[in-house]
Sequence to fold (574 residues):
Amino acid sequence: MKTFFRLVALVKPYLWWMALAAFIGFATTGSGIGLLMTSAYIIAKAALQPPMVALQVGIAGVRFFGLARGAFRYAERLISHNITFKILAKLRLWFYDAIEPLAPARLMHFKSGDLLQRVVDDIQSLENIYTRVLGPPLTALLVTALMWFLLGSYSVSAAMIILCFHTLAGIGVPILTMQLSRGISVGIMKHKAEEQVLALDLIQGIGELQLYGNLPAHLAAMQSAETGKLQLQRKNAVIEGLHESLTGLLMNGAVITILWTLIPSISSGATANGIALSVITLAVMASFEPFLPLPSTIKHIEADQHAGERLFEILDAKPETIAPANPIPFPSEHAIQVKRLSFTYPGSTAKALDSLSFSVLPGEHIAIVGPSGAGKSTITALFMRFWNSREGCINIGGHNITLFDPEELRRNIALVSQKTYLFAETIRENLTLAAPGATDDDLKKALTAAGLSHFASKLDEWCGQHGMKLSGGERQRIAIARILLQRAPIMILDEATANLDGITEKEVTETLTAISAGKTLITITHRLKAMEKYHRIFVLEKGKIVEQGVHSELMAGNGLYRRMWELQHMTELG
Ligand SMILES: Nc1ncnc2c1ncn2[C@@H]1O[C@H](COP(=O)(O)OP(=O)(O)OP(=O)(O)O)[C@@H](O)[C@H]1O
Fold:
């Protein structure tokens, strides 16, 4: 229930609007009751053939309640939907704000499809919190009070009867529905989330699924999630039918019981007359309208609770990197010093980096090389503060990088990794990501310098899903154009050319060398190509620096570097 109250707290700023909407909802049902009461009055009275003037009040009542009902319904929908959309927009913004600092460290354990489900469906389902959960019970309560007052002023026994039947419809039927439908809404949500995860995997990994013959098994899993969802939806429909029939039954039960109680008093001429009886009958029937949605309220509480838990799981997660309260500006002098840096990934026992120390002078070009799993990419992740080390530190310009605003730090370190992500947008949008204020002229210059002059006239060309319309080399060149636009003084190239064929790799490397002139460069690679150009090379093995020097010095030794170099060059020659 804690989650539910947290969700209710979210709508606190709209409490007065919600109260107004509930009151207008009550006015709508009240007008419906008034409409039927005045209609019954006219029909019953007309049967006694009175003069026309005796019907005037009734006719005016029908006109008034008929028009008022429509106007109130419209106002109630307008206000409640307005509140709902405001709440949804607020929740979505919260979610995006919360998710951004969690990437990538805290999102590692979530599947993309599941996150998509949370941001789209879970938040959407919370729109019911006002329209189906908070509003209808309030309206039903007000209608019960109105009927108690209307009937009570006429007959106390009729008022007691309507109270009993309203209590059964407002509490008994919803509790029964809750017992019968326990777990259904949550089950439907779980199946939907499962389907979403599988659908996204299907879209993204269709090539692999086809290649390894796993497509039928994947489709079967999707089918099974769909079947599970359909079975629960069918059960849900049966229960919904049942509660609607029960509410109808109670409405008719209330009418019959009240008639049965009041008819004797007409015969005896004590309190009731025939006209009043027909008015009461129709009023009782109309008063059950706000009780119809109550059983779904209970189901929505369960669904909202589950959706809320899934959202709060993200909203409450502590980001790996928190910006300091008073960040210091990024220095203009940016010598780098890594001191006794160690790092162990959560859940792992082995150190990915073990007391690593090295320094890079401003404008110096260094390479960090080593076999797969040596910890090279972990260094990049710590520099960009995707992860944070608890042992040792990275200093830039003499300041620990934790003292900078992470966003400013990332603006000043340009990163090209092995896999450049391109959004399913135009070339322009994929470039302005790095420099939102860049002009078309800037973009064209960057494209030309990155070796993509043929794209300079195609800024509005769509890149395709994940940049599929571009070759691997072109995608890496877009990344180069991005870092040119970013104009950062420090560059990290993390296996930037690893996925390219020999000729493209050579061309892209030449472009990268040209644009890194005058900047501090850290190249991270396991491929020992053109190593002569680096001022210093650090050889990493199992998270430790085992050798360092220039290419010729390392080749003169008989260590890991030389063995890696010989192995790679022998393989290439062979
Ligand atoms: N997110 C993670 N969670 C747990 N362990 C990880 C994670 N990422 C990397 N590791 C482990 O940390 C160690 C260093 O990984 P890292 O990716 O830094 O190596 P690398 O030298 O860049 O390798 P490669 O050249 O293959 O990319 C490896 O043992 C790896 O299994």
The chain has a mean pLDDT of 88. The longest strand covers residues 336-343.
